[in-house]
Amino acid sequence: MSMQSRIEAQLRAAFSPSVLDVINESSNHNVPKGSETHFKVLVVSSVFEGTIAVKRHRLVYDAMGDLMTKKPGVHALSIVAKTPSEWAQDETVRTSPECAGGSKVAR
Fold first, then answer.
1. What are the pLDDT digits (tens) for 13-66?
2. Cα(60)–Cα(41) distance, rounded to whole angstroms?
3. CB count in 10 Å sphere of residue 84
4. Which residues contact 51 (CB under 8 A, 6 or more apart)?
5. Rounded to whole angstroms, how far apart are CA atoms 51 and 66?
6. Are 6 and 65 in contact, with CB atoms under 8 Å apart?
């Protein structure tokens, strides 16, 4: 099972999201071709009602479990965590910045 599929399964189990998008952004980074190490997740769930952004991110990290801590695993994770009402008001998800890590020069 791919890392992307594993992430999707764990986030679905934890949040029963109304919207879930898991994007493998590894190809935008200085990693070997075919890597699954850099991801962006959009999770829209009522579980986030009444919680601040930092708490939401912690909940997502907790749901990811060993995918974040074991090798090989996820090296970088961008999180957009919204409630259904927040998502209904604004479906904007910012584009990830260009990578400046690894052997690439910072801009």
1. 999 999 999 988 766 666 657 666 678 899 999 999 999 999 999 999 999 888
2. 9
3. 15
4. 59
5. 24
6. no
DSSP 8-state symbol, 70: S
Q: Locate 2 and state its tokens.
A: 């791919």
The Cα–Cα gap between 14 and 16 comes to 6
Is-contact 48 80, C-beta < 8 A? no
Tell me the pTM.
0.82
Run of H or E residues at 21: strand 19-24
Predicted confidence band at 106 (pLDDT cuts at 50, 70, 90)?
very low
Please give the domain boundaries of the chain with CATH numbers for all domains: 3-89 (3.30.300.90)
The SS3 of residue 83 is coil
Helix (H) or strand (E) holding 14: helix 3-15
Give the tokens for residue 100: 């400046």
- List all residues 6 or more positions away from 53 whose beta carbon is below 8 Å from its beta carbon: 81
